[in-house]
Specification:
The protein has about 400 residues and is of the alpha/beta class. It has 13 helices and 18 strands. The strands form 3 sheets. The protein has a 7-stranded mixed β-sheet with strand order 6-5-4-7-8-11-10, sandwiched between helices. Helix 4 runs parallel beside helix 5. It binds thymidine-5'-diphosphate.
Length: about 400
Amino acid sequence: MKRIFLDLGKQSIANGFLKENEIENEYFYNLSIGFNEKIKLVSLMNFVDGTIMFNDSYVYHSSSSKTMRDHFKSVADMIKEHFNPNSILEIGSNDGVFLKHFHKKNVVAVEPCSNFAKITHKMGYKTYAEFWDKNLAEKIENKHGKMDLVYAANCICHIPNLDETFSAINNILNDDGIIIFEDPSLLEMLERNSYDQIYDEHAHIFSVLALNNILKKNGLEIFKVENIKPHGGSNRIFTKELLGRYDIDKSVNENIDLELKKGLDKFKTYEKFAERVQNSKQDLINLLKDLKAKGKKIISYGATSKSSIIFNFCEIDTKYIDYIIDTTPDKQEKLSPGMHIPVISPEEGLNETVDYAFLGAWNYEKEILNKEKNFIDRGGKFITHVPYVRILQ
Ligand code: TYD
């Protein structure tokens, strides 16, 4: 049973940037999150139907930042060097940012957002535009055989039914096959106070502790954990079948021990986090009110799912934020979900009239600060809420 610890109120689909004429039919739901004390898993109290989020109008391109392009190249290099698989299944292949580093005959891709499945299909990679489940796993195995390696980045945490997901992966794996998957880290979210990681797509926020419990239930075992940078701190989990040949690396127990030390097995820890979130909300509203009272122009940098959650939760609209800038063409000339703040291109929006830019894409702080030297040199300032609300100096 899940026990609720945080309610982020009425929200719309975090990546659901929309046109003016779509406002009337905008989908809303209540976003709250809880802790399962038995398996130690943090999950949304109510899952949003996958077809509402992942369909032919999905807008998030994994290739949209250099940070992520470099990241996926380095994962591909690591996989070739250490595991050299003959057959790879990628679940959640997005725009092909990972699989393009492998030969077409070695990869099968799964991507339920059909606009993205079309992209990788055109690149020559066999792509199934379907949701991962037992039936799809059987279909793929019948057609392509078993797999040496299953890879998934920022995808497993999107799937409500983890038992079915992992047992289907287990079935399609060759003997000695492995799964490598990476998702945002629960410990990092708690430490950074980044409550904006909680949104419709993230059905779960994983600790190594919880994954260890769930994987074991499904005949799988973690043999290595890497703490990696993407999305404000993620874990890359290397998993094998229970009798698989890889030795268990010390990183597994190190991560679990640290999580236990930080109280990730206790409800109290999550209640304290919820208190910090309420304070963060108040601090952000106070800062924006103060800047507006001084006549400053504030915009937001990066039309992220994360910023959609913050703006809806804190009820921040165009009273505070004039517009959001984002490089993704599919998000431009649209409105943010819920608060309906316009999204425009950086070329148009980051001009001399801007005093402050809220870092909606705080996870790319370094890349953005490097890129926006002109804005900073002329006195422009960035605002962040991670790990606490402040103006970056
Ligand atoms: P991300 O933080 O990965 O989003 P989410 O919260 O939805 O998971 O997305 C980053 C967004 O920021 C993406 O829409 C591209 C945009 N972006 C810019 O507009 N300029 C930049 O310099 C960078 C790094 C990202």
